[in-house]
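User: Good morning. I'm curious how NAP would be positioned relative to this chain. Could you predict the structure with it bound?
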Amino acid sequence: MKAVLCRAFGPPETLVVESVGPPALEPGTVRIAVAAVGVNFPDLLLIEGKYQVRPPFPFSPGLECAGTVTELGPGVTAPRPGTRVMTFLSHGCMAEEVVAPADCVTPIPDAVPFDTAAAFPVVYGTSYHALVARAALAAGEVLLVTGASGGVGLSAVEIGKRMGATVIAAAGSDEKLALAREHGADHLVNYRSEDMRERVKALTDGRGADVIYDPVGGDVFDTAMRCIAWNGRLLVIGFASGRIAEAKTNIVLLKEISVVGVAWGAFAKRDPAANQAYFATLLRWYEKGAVRPRISRRLPLDDAVVALEGFRDRSVVGKQVLLVGAAGG
Ligand SMILES: NC(=O)c1ccc[n+]([C@@H]2O[C@H](COP(=O)([O-])OP(=O)(O)OC[C@H]3O[C@@H](n4cnc5c(N)ncnc54)[C@H](OP(=O)(O)O)[C@@H]3O)[C@@H](O)[C@H]2O)c1
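Assistant: Good morning! Here's the predicted structure, ligand included:
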């Protein structure tokens, strides 16, 4: 089968596409013929050796995919071969076939196309876990989302609106903010041209945001600490800016805020049943139109490099998907 391979840590252009043997079917797993792969910022971190996971070489990046079940491993009775599914792994999805633990495989409704399903698990799983389980966002609260046009950011805007929050989207350009508006944001802040702290204070009568969802880190996190409300929850999602910020504990004390870590992938592996319940809710929301994965670019598997460079130059909005086999040409 064809797979994107990382043979040594390095930039996207060091990846190669090669023919390799199919992955082994272990007890408790299912084999999936991949139709589409979702691309995520952590794929870039993974191939550069900057991620918490460091697989042995050679490995394929790719955290999520959608396709059709072709074979069941020992001890597995469902989902049956022929079932259309989505799944997530620690790596390995940029390939024509994957083998995934059966409890991390989710059947998808006929109405969900493969490219949409491939773009679904990581961003919606992360944002649902963050806003529902970690922050307990309540209807009527104010949610500030930074990096709001990116993969996880845009999903947080949608889920925040679905939960009844007032959503302030913050991003680095007016074009990116327009996308956040299309996906439901109530207020927009351009943190390259505006003072985010002042704008959030002005929009909240001086109170600040109740919940802040921050996948950017660095200076954006530092500013977020200064526009959070009394008893607020600051969700640490990621560090796309490249700097891991440090929380000022004097602000934590003075405003009785919580700085809350979010590690959706690790959570989903610890508690697959809870994660399947998240996806059941999220797929219902999809069918009602409350969440609408925004696929900004579809590329063949061979062009994984192009997709990953989009994260490096900060040009990506929404999600990018690699199409595999006949779909990818
Ligand atoms: N905690 C979890 O469970 C979890 C799960 C998935 C992803 N993540 C993390 O979340 C972060 C975002 O992932 P993603 O897939 O949503 O990425 P993405 O689509 O590239 O979004 C990241 C956003 O960060 C902003 N940004 C600011 N400075 C940047 C820089 N120097 N380079 C690139 N982007 C920059 C960009 O928006 P502006 O240009 O508007 O600033 C961009 O839209 C990553 O750190 C990832 O590892 C965490």
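The chain has two domains: 2-119+296-328, 123-264. Residues 272-287 form the longest helix (16 residues).
Let me know if you'd like a different ligand tried.
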